[in-house]
Amino acid sequence: MKMNNQRVCIYPKDIQRITGKSYRQSTRLMQKIKKDLNKLENEFLTIDEFCTYSGIKYEQVTHLIFG
């Protein structure tokens, strides 16, 4: 039986694919979102939090992240 595992957290490389920005700009954007959401540096950013913050629908993002 194969389990269909989809991750919950988003990484700068994913943000780069979604926005078309450079990797460094994507890292800065991720840090800004985490700061605005009062997350600690070691906490992950979820895909839902990114979508809510950026105003992009989850359905539009998933095919860019998961293929």
Q: Assign an overall shape.
A: globular
Q: What is the typical, i.e. mean, pLDDT? A: 91
Number of helices: 4
The parts where pLDDT drops under 50 for at least 5 residues are: none
The percentage of residues in β strands lies in: under 5%
Total domain units: 1
Note the main sheet.
none
| C-alpha termini separation | 22 Å
Fraction of residues in H or I helices: 55-70%
Question: Which structural class should the secondary elements be placed in?
Answer: mainly alpha
In short:
With 67 residues, the chain is mainly α. It has one domain. The chain has helices at 12-19, 23-36, 47-54, 58-66.
Textual characterization of the structure:
This protein is mostly helical. It has one domain (12-64). Helices cover 58% and strands 0% of the residues. The chain is built from 4 helices and no strands. It has helices at 12-19, 23-36, 47-54, 58-66. α1 crosses α2.
Give short descriptive properties of this protein.
single chain; 67 residues; mainly alpha; 58% helix
Secondary-structure map:
Blueprint (H helix, E strand, L loop, with lengths): L11 H8 L3 H14 L10 H8 L3 H9 L1
Helix pairs in contact: 1-2
